[in-house]
């Protein structure tokens, strides 16, 4: 397909986010020792990745998060710096790239979150986004006075109300509320600074926010849940959806569904950006890519790969035959709380079913729950182009195997191919994340009617 | 007194914090328009003040805070950027100076706060401090689902338990928990990463923290309450006390009391630093200083000064005779909730009583509730030296009238005088805030006994 054909198929260009998951998406990354084992606690590590990403004109960098120590710290780096403060540091080491921080709607108060993200939006000059998560899992709950996580339905009901409150707080100062006339002494027009007087099932919040309206109007909202609750929440409130989709068909179906849901809320579906994750292991040749993958796998053996399948389906690895298909009959019987996230599980099952994969084959096609591509820059560019042009994605959340080499290869080798095909910008055309993503400035719900 | 006499009287040197209160401590500062009326939302404004302060080798910059919009936004700049994210930005624009962020123990969860400050401590290379406040006032409460603020006693009981939890979380990774051996795959020693399993009246927190131990061991703790609850809390947990003291005698008495209280908790009293606030209006001559003060006062007339007295005692300004003493008999009858903070009220009453001041005289001796000095650099240096040498203070929280000129004058004119007298450093000798303040590295409560 020629470049002109490509660029005629869709208006605009794809969005690209760089997901900084510790040392990289591959659990062996820290052992390759491209950086020191303490690097994940060092702001310079993140600033370096962000600057490389910005060199490639990427839309944003992204930090996942959860308020609990996860994993076995004897074997893997544990803990993470809190994303809003870390991304403040990163924003100030960059000029254009957006910063997407994850924070929990279950274990925070809306006033605090609305304020912190509005502050980050001010400090970054309009580059802040909040990835809203509700945090399944008991470990987080037990750090906040609960024996276990609230029910899924309750977490999402709270999240819905949380976002309603946050949006009202972000709108509580109208765009032109500040007069700022030192001579006359008029600071703000009090008719344009609103109490929100919210009283709901979960929250009562008077407002107004104690931060005036931020450069983007409000921070960009990202949502990542693929359950029914997650899809309802995301299609209603989010500007971008991070999702795990492992086959083109599933990606297209999810894309169609979410756009339709957005329209159902009275929204313009164009302004809900669908961004599946893609894990990458890139080499100049296929052989090089597979050698890189093998080197990473060598640290934990093939067992590490099989473990990720076992963990998602909730059946111990030692009870699985790697060369057999998934034990479909047993999977249905596993209780929900023994499995990983619903979206990750389904994406994995769909891939195995559609391509009739053995467990071993499946284990080499996913990484941290997302579709994995081991291959050349051309192959990565091809799959990104294909999904984008086939309306399975508006953009992608890129999860390189290992930092910093993984982001360097992506920016230096994949991005130019996308640019040549007319699918990605050559330079930033806007200054805010909202502009990078092609989203309009939001209308203020309290704005006075003329 | 000669320099040698001065420096012999006390070991060590005084500590100096720079309190960035919006456009300055004087409510007329924004109207003088040294900077644009939106400057308080601009990170560059704060970075500039921090860099000037660092040029003077000050210990820290400080940001007060509360989670509610305060004051009349039609007349005064309203709202503030959230301190932990703002001070992350400031820390990365500086190399040595500490950053003290205020956050509420009443309207936050300990896991979130412990984590955010540990992250800031990592990101700043050991320069983070948390100023713990409990937030009197109903406006904050109404942003968090409450009709009004919890009772004083309940706020402080919660704060006490909050700090106990936070200290455990900060200690939950021992200093040498991380092995970080990529070759063998040993990341951390799991015996040195501790659940805290805290169950109390207000909080149940399992832990461990999901941030390894930070460069200062834990962030420096600052506390500012002068009530009985505040003094008990501060003397038990704090590394530094910010206080309002308006007369030397009261300052000395508070100093003695707090040192004794610290000793009563089994602490070394030297490691509890007492830092009263001092508001400054500085000119090269007394006449210049008073002209500067008059220019600021002109924006709101004398009425603005009288209002600050009226507000603290809870009696409308129009019912007060500026040339009479305080109406002592009425003050006693004013209900507690109509007054300002107990510490600020008492400091003001003590000053009026000790020096037998009229309301007008009193109104010109305090600013934002703190002792005000309008005078020359020599006079400011004299009063700082005097209080320091007379054991009324280990250091000071400086609150200039207006930024940036107020911090420039202090750093360029007052600091050199203190340096010449041997009372203040000529250059930083440590790299962490704890080192600047002369505090030891904290022992980890979970450290394995040999």
TrEMBL record, chains A, B:
Keywords assigned: Flavoprotein, FMN, Monooxygenase, Oxidoreductase
Sites where the protein binds FMN: 65, 102, 152, 156, 226-227
Matching SUPFAM superfamilies: Bacterial luciferase-like
One MF term in the entry's GO annotations: oxidoreductase activity, acting on paired donors, with incorporation or reduction of molecular oxygen
Domain Luciferase-like as annotated: residue spans: 34-388
Domain of life: Bacteria
Family: Belongs to the NtaA/SnaA/DszA monooxygenase family.
Protein name, per record: FMN-dependent monooxygenase
Organism: Pseudomonas parafulva
Lineage: Bacteria, Pseudomonadati, Pseudomonadota, Gammaproteobacteria, Pseudomonadales
């Amino acid at each position: 397909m020629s470049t002109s054909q490509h660029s005629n198929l869709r208006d605009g260009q794809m969005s690209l986010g760089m997901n900084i998951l510790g040392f990289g998406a591959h659990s062996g990354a820290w052992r390759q020792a491209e950086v020191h084992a303490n690097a994940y606690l060092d702001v310079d590590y993140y600033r370096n990745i962000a600057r490389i990403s910005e060199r490639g004109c990427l839309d944003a960098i992204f930090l996942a998060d959860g308020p609990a120590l996860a994993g076995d710290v004897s074997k893997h780096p544990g803990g993470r710096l809190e994303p809003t403060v870390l991304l403040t540091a990163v924003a100030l080491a960059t000029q254009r790239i957006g910063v997407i921080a994850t924070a929990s709607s279950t274990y925070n108060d809306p006033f605090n979150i609305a304020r912190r993200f509005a502050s980050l939006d001010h400090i970054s000059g309009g580059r802040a986004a909040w990835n809203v998560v509700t945090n399944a899992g008991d470990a987080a709950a037990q750090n906040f006075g609960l024996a276990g996580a609230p029910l899924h339905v309750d977490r999402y009901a709270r999240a819905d109300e949380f976002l309603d409150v946050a949006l009202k707080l972000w709108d509580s100062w109208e765009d032109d509320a500040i007069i700022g006339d030192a001579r006359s002494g008029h600071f703000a027009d009090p008719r344009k600074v609103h109490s929100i007087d919210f009283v709901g099932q979960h929250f009562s919040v008077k407002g107004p926010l104690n931060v005036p309206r931020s450069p983007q109007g409000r921070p960009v909202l990202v949502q990542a849940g693929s359950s029914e609750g997650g899809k309802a929440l995301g299609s209603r409130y989010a500007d971008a959806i991070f999702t795990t989709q492992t086959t083109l068909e599933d990606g297209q179906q999810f894309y169609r569904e979410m756009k339709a849901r957005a329209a159902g809320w009275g929204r313009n579906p164009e302004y809900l950006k669908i961004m599946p994750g893609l894990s990458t292991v890139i080499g100049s040749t296929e052989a090089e890519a597979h050698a890189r993958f093998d080197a990473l796998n060598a640290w934990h053996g093939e067992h590490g790969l099989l473990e990720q399948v076992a963990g998602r389906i909730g059946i111990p690895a030692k009870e699985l035959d790697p060369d057999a298909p998934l034990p479909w009959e047993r999977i249905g019987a596993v209780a929900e709380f023994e499995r990983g996230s619903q979206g990750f599980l389904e994406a994995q099952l769909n891939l195995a079913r559609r391509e009739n994969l053995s467990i071993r084959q499946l284990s080499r096609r996913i990484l941290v729950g997302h579709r994995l591509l081991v291959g050349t820059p051309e192959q990565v560019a091809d799959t990104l182009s294909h999904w984008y042009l086939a309306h399975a994605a508006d953009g992608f959340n890129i999860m390189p195997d290992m930092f910093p080499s993984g982001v360097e290869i992506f920016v230096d080798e994949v991005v130019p191919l996308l640019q040549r095909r007319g699918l990605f910008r050559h330079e930033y055309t806007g200054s805010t994340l909202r502009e990078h993503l092609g989203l309009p400035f939001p209308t203020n719900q309290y704005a006075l009617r003329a």
